[in-house]
Amino acid sequence: MTKATICIDSLETDVYIGATEEERSRKQKIRWFISISFFDRPKACKSDLLEDTLCYDHIVNMIVETSNAKKYNLLEHLVETAYKKIKSKEVRLLVRASKVIEGLTSYCPSFELKSD
């Protein structure tokens, strides 16, 4: 079976996020990785019509809206909120967000949710 997946890699949003009030007082860069796998190949593969698939721009807008909706304490809650907005019954979904910390190149803390 051929797997069909839409990926949105390295989308960056600025989010008020952090465990402390001081951290949440300034926006921090979050890098998103979204992978949407279809149970069945989208009709758009043959039709070449936007209405037969998921619109990338719509997904990006949902992430941006979620990022701007409020201040978040934890990356886990931010990812869960975005996950719930995007998830539908027709797809498998992976949502991962990494906190981009300036001057820290050895790692980026991240959190991921993946549907079965």
Concise structural overview:
This protein has 116 residues and is of the alpha+beta class.
Features:
116 residues, alpha+beta, GTP Cyclohydrolase I, domain 2, four-stranded antiparallel sheet, 4 helices, 4 strands, 34% strand
Would you mind describing this structure in some detail?
It contains 4 helices and 4 strands. The chain is α+β, with helices and mostly antiparallel strands and 116 residues long. The protein has a single domain, classed as GTP Cyclohydrolase I, domain 2. Strands 1-2-3-4 form a 4-stranded antiparallel sheet, with helices on one face. Helix 3 packs antiparallel against helix 4. It is elongated and about 50 Å long. 16% of the residues are buried.
CATH class descriptor name:
Alpha Beta
Structural class: alpha+beta
Radius of gyration: 16 Å
Count of distinct structural domains: 1
The major β-sheet equals: 4 strands, antiparallel
What would you call the shape? elongated
- Poorly predicted runs are none
| Distance N to C terminus | 17 Å
Number of helices in the DSSP assignment: 4
CATH topology-level name: GTP Cyclohydrolase I, domain 2
Number of DSSP strand runs: 4
Report mean pLDDT, rounded to a whole number. 87
> Numbering strands along the chain, what is their spatial order in the largest sheet?
1-2-3-4
CATH superfamily placement? GTP cyclohydrolase I, C-terminal domain/NADPH-dependent 7-cyano-7-deazaguanine reductase, N-terminal domain
CATH architectural type: 2-Layer Sandwich
SSE arrangement, N to C: EHEHHHEE
Strand content: 25-35%
The helix content is 25-40%
Protein name: Dihydroneopterin aldolase
GO biological process, one term: folic acid-containing compound metabolic process
GO molecular function, one term: dihydroneopterin aldolase activity
InterPro entries: FolB_dom, GTP-CH-I_C/QueF
